[in-house]
Each structure stands twice: as structure tokens, then as C-alpha cells.
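Q: Given only this backbone (285 positions), what sequence would you predict?
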């Protein structure tokens, strides 16, 4: 009952915050980031991403402090989060590539999640100034609600994929995975095997095209959901149902982005773990 009473006491504060948060005219959010500093070189989304990233980094350092065997509450919280992410990503990426991939995946997840949720904070999108023509320029805009921001995150993910794949798998395995004949030669009729080789070659070309457009698909998916949620909230004056729905959407989109990045790495680098384990077990016997 005490928790219910505290929640009821908190609802009036939300009722006060929502009108301030929705101080705009309900017209929605501009798809284009606004220039705020250095004659347009720095937009409000870039400024927000830098400042918010620095704040999060400082908070994480403060929470962890000096790591100890008996962790503080902050250290225990961060360790629990990283443990959960490790259990999620390690089976997908594979043991060989996981040490190199995990820092990237954990950073992407935390950064994207917090930026997705940042649009729900009162003042984001409503703090700014009016120009001489009456146009309102918001100072603060979530990094992931700008397509330039999401394409940058996708390019980082794609660049890391290239580095990790060539380091832990190599060009030979990558080529065979894309264009190699996956059929078992001993179990395939002789006349059929060359035909399957040609089929897999065509499929490999399609796969190369799908790899090339990965940065675009990753960025559009994230941008579309976050930007659409921002417009939904502004257009409905932050109705509670949509407000909490956007919290769920922010979590889902951060998870989807990082899971896909992990899957792309695991598709190439996670072939040998089970084979190596079986070889080790056979040698032990």
C-alpha cells in the first residue's frame, strides 16, 4: 500500500511536468537537425550527443569508482548490466570474437538506449530560442532522432564488423561463407553439385548487396522509430499511454540495433566454436 500511495503522490508532479514538456504547438518535430553553433557546423543533435555522452561517462565513472571485491551499489548495478549483456551477446558473437566485440556492443546499447529515452525528459525539444522570423530552434535534441546520428552509429557498427571479421575469421572464411558451396559433396549427386555451386555464387552476390546496405537499414530503422515516437508524443501532447509506450520502444530499438550488430559478427566468426570444442573433447578422450 505504501508504494501505491507514493505513486499516487507522484502523479500530480507528472501532471505538472507534462504541460511544460509539451509547451510546443503540437506540430511535431522537424526531421532536420537545427544548426546551433559555429555557423551550422554543430547541430543541436550533435551538441546533445556530445554533452549527454560526457555526462553519462562521468556518471558511470562515479558509480563504479575504484573497483573492489565488495562492490558498491553503483558498481554492482553496472556489473549486473554488463553481465546481462554478456549473457545475451556471447552466444551470438562466439567466444573468439567476443572480447573484441563486447565493448562496442555494450557501448552502442547503453548510448542508444539513453538517447532514445532522453526525448522523454521534460525540456528536451522545448528549450531553445525564437529567431527573428519567429522560427523556434531547440537547443536539445536526442542524437538518435537525427538521421545523421543514426547513420553515424550504423557506420561505426559496420566499420567494426569489417575489422572484427577480417581479424578473427579472415578473408578466406568470409569468401567461402558468402560464395562457397554449402552442400555436402559426399551426399550430393555429381551432376547436381556444379549447379548448386552456381546457385550459391548467385546467392553470394545477393548477400554482398545486403551487406553493403546494412548501414542504411540499421540507421533507417532506428531513426524511423525514434523520430516517429517524438512526433507522436508532441502531436498528442504527451499522453501517458504513448509516453510509457515510447519507453518500451526505446528499449526495443536499442536491443534490436545491437543484436543485429552482434548477429552480423556471429554469422562469420561463430562457425568454429562448436567445432573447436568437439576437437578438444576428442583429444581429451
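A: Predicted residues:
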Amino acid at each position: 500500500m505504501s508504494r501505491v500511495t507514493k505513486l499516487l503522490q507522484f502523479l500530480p508532479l507528472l501532471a505538472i511536468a507534462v504541460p511544460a514538456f509539451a509547451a510546443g504547438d503540437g506540430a511535431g518535430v522537424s526531421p532536420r537537425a537545427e544548426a546551433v553553433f559555429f555557423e551550422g557546423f554543430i547541430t543541436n543533435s550533435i551538441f546533445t550527443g556530445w554533452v549527454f555522452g560526457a555526462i553519462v561517462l562521468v556518471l558511470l565513472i562515479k558509480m563504479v569508482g575504484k573497483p573492489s571485491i565488495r562492490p558498491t551499489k553503483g558498481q554492482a548495478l553496472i556489473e549486473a548490466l554488463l553481465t546481462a549483456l554478456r549473457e545475451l551477446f556471447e552466444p551470438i558473437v562466439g567466444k573468439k570474437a567476443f572480447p573484441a566485440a563486447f565493448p562496442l556492443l555494450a557501448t552502442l546499447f547503453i548510448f542508444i538506449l539513453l538517447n532514445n529515452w532522453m526525448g522523454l525528459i521534460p525540456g528536451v525539444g522545448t528549450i531553445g530560442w525564437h529567431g527573428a522570423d519567429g522560427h523556434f530552434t531547440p537547443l536539445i535534441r536526442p542524437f538518435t532522432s537525427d538521421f545523421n546520428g543514426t547513420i553515424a552509429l550504423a557506420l561505426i557498427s559496420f566499420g567494426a564488423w569489417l575489422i572484427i571479421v577480417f581479424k578473427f575469421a579472415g578473408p578466406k572464411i568470409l569468401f567461402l561463407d558468402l560464395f562457397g558451396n554449402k552442400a555436402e559433396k559426399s551426399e550430393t549427386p555429381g551432376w547436381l553439385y556444379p549447379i548448386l555451386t552456381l546457385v550459391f555464387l548467385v546467392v553470394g552476390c545477393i548477400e554482398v548487396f545486403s551487406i553493403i546496405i546494412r548501414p542504411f537499414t540499421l540507421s533507417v530503422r532506428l531513426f524511423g522509430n525514434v523520430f516517429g515516437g517524438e512526433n507522436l508524443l508532441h502531436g498528442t501532447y504527451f499522453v501517458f499511454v504513448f509516453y510509457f509506450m515510447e519507453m518500451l520502444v526505446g528499449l526495443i530499438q536499442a536491443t534490436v540495433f545491437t543484436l543485429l550488430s552482434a548477429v552480423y559478427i556471429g554469422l562469420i566468426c561463430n562457425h568454429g566454436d562448436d567445432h573447436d570444442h568437439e576437437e578438444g573433447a576428442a583429444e581429451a578422450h
